[in-house]
Design goal:
Length: about 220
């Protein structure tokens, strides 16, 4: 899958609803995450390639401080431009926060989608790192949560996400596009958006909704 700047710029224009529509029209399963995963800020939106992390609950910190946050830090260090971190179910503490987001930004990551809790909500909003989470918890994850695998299939918001799938998230919801159909779906979405622009122009210039629908066949 190409990650050139032009394609990444095209991804940045995607919205969850048109993506869901195009998956439906292609006869593909529309994998939409459960609505409890919400943006930290309502203006956040993100589209990028899934970099998956599977999280488990633990009962104690590692004996050796050299093993603190080992896989969590490795996941962030391994990020590529255009990646979206996707985190499995994690409820025992705040798994995501400002410092991790700062490091992820430097790696070119474009956001996080997690069935997990975050902390540093104000800082995440202020730094404009699109983060979609299940809630907030001020507790540190050390000794409570740990990452046991990277790049494997994870369940997030009731959807199985694979490394490299396309994740599109905004205030409407979160849609996952299988890696093997990203390019045709992105092309279909861009065509749909162009038709929506044309329909919007007609509506603003007085065309009735029935006539506009018959002309453009979208809604």
């Amino acid at each position: 899958m190409t990650r050139d700047s032009a394609f990444l710029a095209a991804l940045a224009e995607l919205r969850s609803a048109p993506v869901a529509d195009c998956l439906d029209q292609a006869g593909l399963p529309c994998a939409v995450m459960a609505p409890h995963i919400r943006p930290v800020s309502p203006d956040f939106r993100v589209a990028g390639f899934a970099a998956t992390m599977h999280v488990v609950e633990v009962e104690a910190k590692p004996d050796d401080t050299a093993n603190y946050y080992t896989n969590e830090l490795a996941a962030v260090d391994g990020l590529r431009p255009g990646d979206v971190l996707v985190v499995s179910h994690a409820r025992k503490a705040g798994f995501w926060g400002e410092l991790l987001a700062t490091a992820a930004t430097r790696k070119g990551a474009v956001g996080l989608v997690g069935d997990c809790y975050a902390r540093d909500a104000h800082a995440l909003t202020e730094m404009n790192f699109p983060s979609f989470v299940a809630g907030f918890n001020p507790l540190d994850s050390l000794g409570r949560l740990d990452v046991d695998s990277l790049g494997t299939d994870v369940e997030c918001g009731g959807v199985t996400v694979r490394q490299g799938d396309l994740v599109v998230a905004d205030a409407d919801g979160i849609v996952v596009v299988p890696a093997e159909v990203i390019e045709p779906i992105v092309s279909a979405v861009r065509a749909k958006l162009a038709r929506e622009d044309a329909m919007r122009h007609d509506l603003r210039n007085g065309m009735g909704i029935v006539e506009a629908f018959r002309k453009h066949e979208i809604l």
